[in-house]
């Protein structure tokens, strides 16, 4: 579990995230960027009704940071699933393209 976002600000909007295709990510590879969990959000049946159905993950320096979707990831873990479908922003590839 992390404490904040160690990677640079990417500036992606919700629309930008929606353009990234979801892919499978192993739950044990994710590092959370949030320290607190809202139990009410976790238990709400419609918690993703107004947001993206897929969690947002940022790949930076070889690590996968769960930026948004902690509640969905925890629900998946509680259901004993090993993987989660998430949208992944690969900042490693972006940095390599800048070099």
From TrEMBL:
Protein's name according to its UniProt entry: Type II toxin-antitoxin system VapB family antitoxin
Source organism per UniProt: Actinomadura macrotermitis
Domain of life: Bacteria
InterPro entries: VapB-like_prob
